[in-house]
Amino acid sequence: MSTSEIKVGAHVRDADPLVTAAELEADVVQFFLADPQKWHKPKPRPDAEELRGSAVQVFIHAPYIVNVASTNNRIRIPSRKIMREHATAAETVGARGLIVHGGHVTKDDDPAAGADNWRKAFAEAHEKYGGFDTPILIENTAGGDHSMARRLDALARLWDAVGDYNPGFCLDTCHAHAGGIDLVTAVEKVKAITGRIDLVHCNDSRDEFDSGRDRHATIGTGKIDPKLLQEVVLAAGAPVVVETPGEGQADDIAFLRAAL
Q1: Rounded to two decimals, what is the model's pTM?
Q2: The domain that contains 167 carries what CATH number?
Q3: Model confidence over 105-142: pLDDT tens digits?
Q4: Which of 93, 130, 108, 114 shows the shortest CA–CA distance to 14?
Q5: Is 38 exposed, middle or buried (0-12, 13-18, 19+ CB in 10 A)?
Q6: For the chain, what is the domain count?
Q7: What was the pLDDT predicted at 228?
């Protein structure tokens, strides 16, 4: 993808994504299909056909509570179910991917068990349902020493487990910075592991490098060099979504687009 073809947009409220996209002059929108903190199956959207037919690219973010890696049956099993339900619902709005956090295990668990739980989730989906209706994009996370996708070695272990199912990857710049991944070489090193970056969440960080804290900031107001964020976007060559405070999103989009 040439730099002029890279699409830039934002995570928006789910009420009327296309209206917000027009207001922000966004090429891409990302939103939730249900409450991100609850185990709710998405309801049909009256604007599904309009979203499918729009020139605006659509991505859906899975609920935050999804933790496919968990060794706790009460979390892992509903996580698999809701991930599948959201992937199916995402297809109805023409989504290009369902973003799912890598998840974590507890300090008493072997991290390899979490990676294997991800493998089992993909295997189950393929064996029972022929795969997911929308590509699953696993996102790197900011904190936790037992996370599946915080540090590069953990990401490599996860991809060793799920790589045969060819999942997608979403690189979050705030999460990488807070998680201890140097953004100067992040794209190169992530692609060496995953073979791909399908989406970039371009966010500044309110906290220092390797803080483990997931607090997004408007570009230029946090701890990441804005020029470095532009360079990550250029190197990744994938669609870009800003998940920054709403009042600054239009400026963030314009800033990133200027680099293209």
Answers
A1: 0.97
A2: 3.20.20.150
A3: 999 999 999 999 999 999 999 999 999 999 999 999 99
A4: 93
A5: exposed
A6: 1
A7: 98
